[in-house]
Amino acid sequence: MEDTVLTDIPVSYISILQATAALSFNMNSDLYTGSLLKTLAASKPGSRILELGTGGGLSTSWILAGMDERSRLVTVENNAALLDIAKVQLADHRIEFVLADGYEWLKNYQGEKFDLIFADAMPGKYDLFEETITLVRSGGFYLIDDMLPQPNWPLGHAEKVRKFVLNLETRKDLVLTKMNWSTGIILVVKK
Ligand SMILES: C[S@@+](CC[C@H](N)C(=O)[O-])C[C@H]1O[C@@H](n2cnc3c(N)ncnc32)[C@H](O)[C@@H]1O
Q1: Do 166 and 180 form a contact (C-beta atoms < 8 A)?
Q2: Are 109 and 135 in contact (CB under 8 A)?
Q3: Which of 38, 62, 93, 98 has the smallest count of CB within 10 Å of its CB?
Q4: Which of 40, 74, 78, 90 to probe ligand 1 with, by most ligand atoms within 8 A of CB?
Q5: 172 Cβ partners below 8 Å, 6+ apart?
Q6: What is the pLDDT of residues 63-92, one digit of tens each?
Q7: Which ligand 1 atom minimizes the distance to the CA of 29?
Q8: CA triplet 187, 97, 27: central angle to 5 degrees?
C-alpha cells in the first residue's frame, strides 16, 4: 500500500491552494486529512456536518466530495477574505457558509446535533470543547488534526495539546483512535 497515492483529489483543490497562497495563508489541511474527511462524510448519508475553521475551503472541498445529495454542511470562519475563497470555489446548495466568530457561534447555536464535526480552529478544540462535543450525535465523529508538533506551534502549545489529549483519553463517553499519520489525527466517536 502507498498512502501517498490519492486519485480523488477535489477539482477545486489547486485553485483553492493558489487563492489562499495569494493571501499568504499557510494553515490548509493536508491531503491525508482531506481524504479521511471525505471517507467519514461518505459514511453518513443524509448527514449534518459542522466544520469550525473553514480557511479557504480546502478541507471543505474534501467533505463536500464525500457528501451525498441529502447531506448538509455548516462551515464557520471569522476571516471574510478566506471564506469568500471557499464560497466562490465551492458554491453548492448543501453548504451553509457562516462568517462568524466561532466562540460566539458555538455559544449561541441551538439547532440540531451533527454526525461529523471537523474542529479546525481554537473554538471547538482547545476552547469550548464541552460545548462542541455536546453537539456530536451518539455514534457521530469528532475529528481533529495538527496533533503532532507543527512548525507553526506557538510557545506553550505543546503543553496545551498534551492536556487536551489527556482529557480526551480519560472521558468515558468517547471512543478514540490516535493516528501518528498526516499531521497527527485523533478520530473520536461519541458513545
Ligand atoms: C487551521 S485553519 C483552517 C484550515 C481549513 N480547515 C483547511 O483545512 O483548509 C484555522 C481557521 O480558523 C479560523 N479561525 C481562527 N479563529 C477563529 C474564530 N474565533 N472563529 C472562527 N474562525 C476562526 C482562521 O481564520 C483559519 O482560517
Answers
A1: no
A2: yes
A3: 93
A4: 78
A5: 191
A6: 999 999 999 999 999 999 999 999 999 999
A7: 8
A8: 55
